[in-house]
Amino acid sequence: MTDRLARTRSAGVLAVLRAPSPEAAIDASEAIIRGGVTGIEVTYSTPDAPAVIRELIARHGDAAVIGAGTVTNAEQAEAAADAGAEFLVSPGTLPDLTRAMVGTGRVVMTGALTPTEVMTALDLGVDVVKIFPASLGGPSYLGALRGPFPGAPLMPTGGVNPDNLAAWFAAGAVAVGAGGDLANSASIAAQDWHDLEARAARFATALAAVRG
């Protein structure tokens, strides 16, 4: 667990991947990894997400951090863990689901927005609280949450792009989730892997600048 959590934090940026087919998900992930973003969150919006996770792990091993997103039931959590997912992400925090996710022994990230939801997630033992949709409050809101929760590991998702990446980390993010600005749905639909690679390269450059 400690190693998985350290690897997830080290990746810094998790690409939130929604693809129309397993093949498109794999090709999109390959482009994003080539661009320098090594954290891939294969959401259950993607058909046969566990098979995609298994294939990406087989291809990249420790060179990438592969997990599952949009986990909404215990069966999905178990299937993703069985496929080798290093982390599990849910858009919200439901007690029974969160306990099932924690029970897999994987890194668990569940969604929250309000202080009460953050407290609930932490009380249930999640490793990282996903602040979603982070675009509603921006980096200043994440910074405000640092007041009552100075040690909480927070990961904003939604509204993150290369231009504001530094602001999110300055506000206290331990990592960020990036959807449309990175794993762009139109580019995936058009199979424009060059565009995805270029988007990932911009995120990787911004992250490197943040980390010095």
Net shape: globular
Order of helices and strands: HEHEHEHEHEHEHEHEHH
Low-pLDDT runs of 5+ residues are none
**What's the helix count?**
10
Please compute the radius of gyration using only Cα atoms: 16 Å
Sheet/helix structural class: alpha/beta
- How many strands appear in the DSSP assignment? 8
What strand order characterises the main sheet?
A: 3-2-1-8
- Give helix % range: 40-55%
How does the major sheet shape up?
A: 4 strands, parallel
What share of the residues does DSSP label as strand, in percent? 15-25%
**What is the mean pLDDT?**
97
Task: State the distance separating the first and last CA atoms.
Answer: 27 Å
Summarize the structure.
This protein is of the alpha/beta class. Helices cover 48% and strands 17% of the residues.
Structural summary, described in words:
The chain has 212 residues and is of the alpha/beta class. Helices cover 48% and strands 17% of the residues. It has helices at residues 2-11, 22-35, 49-60, 74-82, 95-103, 115-123, 138-145, 165-170, 185-189, 193-211, and strands at 13-17, 39-43, 65-69, 87-90, 107-112, 128-131, 154-156, 176-178. The chain has a four-stranded parallel β-sheet with strand order 3-2-1-8, with helices on both faces. Strands 4-5-6-7 form a four-stranded parallel β-sheet. Helix 2 (22-35) links the parallel strand 1 (13-17) and strand 2. Helix 2 crosses helix 10 (193-211). The longest helix is centred in the last third of the chain and has 19 residues, at 193-211. The chain is globular. The mean pLDDT is 97.
Task: Write the SSE topology.
Layout: H1 2-11, E1 13-17, H2 22-35, E2 39-43, H3 49-60, E3 65-69, H4 74-82, E4 87-90, H5 95-103, E5 107-112, H6 115-123, E6 128-131, H7 138-145, E7 154-156, H8 165-170, E8 176-178, H9 185-189, H10 193-211
Parallel strand pairs: 1-2, 1-8, 2-3, 4-5, 5-6, 6-7
